Amino acid sequence: MTTRNELPIIYVQGNHLEIGQQIGESMRPQIQHSVENAKILLQKAYDQLQLTWDGASIQARKYMLFAEEHLPQYVEELHGISEGAGVDYNDICIVNAMEGVTSDALHLTKCSSIAVNQSRTANGNVLVAHNEDWTPEDESDVYLVHAKPEKEPPFLAMSYGGLLPNIGFNAHGIAQACDSVYPEDGRIGIPRILYSRAVLAAKTPADAIRSILVPQRAAGYNHLIVHESGELYNIEVSARQFGMIYGEDGYLVHTNFYLDPVMRSIENEPDELISARVRYYRALRLLKQTSKHTVKTLQEIQKDHVNYPDSICNHGIDKNVLNSEKTIMAMVIDLTTHQMHATWGSPCKNNYTTYQLNA
Fold it and tell me: Alpha-carbon distance 35 to 273, whole Å?
């Protein structure tokens, strides 16, 4: 395991194009590296996907047409990232539409998200925890974005490479954590990362949910939506359907399989999602063992290795390039204090650093 220092953080502001340009300029090596990683991934997976980079570019442009119609402001951010990083815009589109372009053959199944409200915390704060699991090659490209858009609330969120930031929280007290899920009704439409980016502009939980359920979406994540008032929602999404789970007991847990009965009926190959299920029940048990949580108790859950290699703290390296993944960063958001406690790489090995959202 690699020991890492503090996550790099960049401060950006302005209109959407300017924000994208500043991200691109600040993180140019990481963005260029992530594009090269994506090209290598498709090359290695050609026998399984039968997809070249040129073919992926053609497919990505189809997805971006829907984004340009419904969410043009975030397409502007992608243009800015392209310009600032000196990377072809089509390559940035592929990276941001990768899950759709590959028809979710990147069956990565190990992200974990947890939330507790004031009824379940020792100090009455509202907390959100997320382990971000992805391909290990992208770990070096992770960073945080502290943004002040002109017409949207300030936010603090994570990203890596050329992806739009989407997992984090904003100054209106809205937090979002995303977990990949695998429905059977995927289609060409708005890439899920673009409408997930829109959640960071929400003023209320209802605004956040409307952003998630945008028409013509290509597929969906589970979106754990939390408000500083203590409202907790899992919004399980596919291209055409959704389920909503409310945290009426003061806590929610989610991994990478559907919990809503209707959504379970459209899950693609659920027998492949065993790791997601054991992590869910392990996290749920650990959460229930403590009556009053703190940032530290949630961090301990994030470091858990029971069921290894299918553990919450993920070090799984698979010989199949489409299944190889690890925890590349972990965060605990305190919505009451507007702070993010984040670690770069494996949470069991690296220290957490506190970052403040300044509105």
Answer: 28
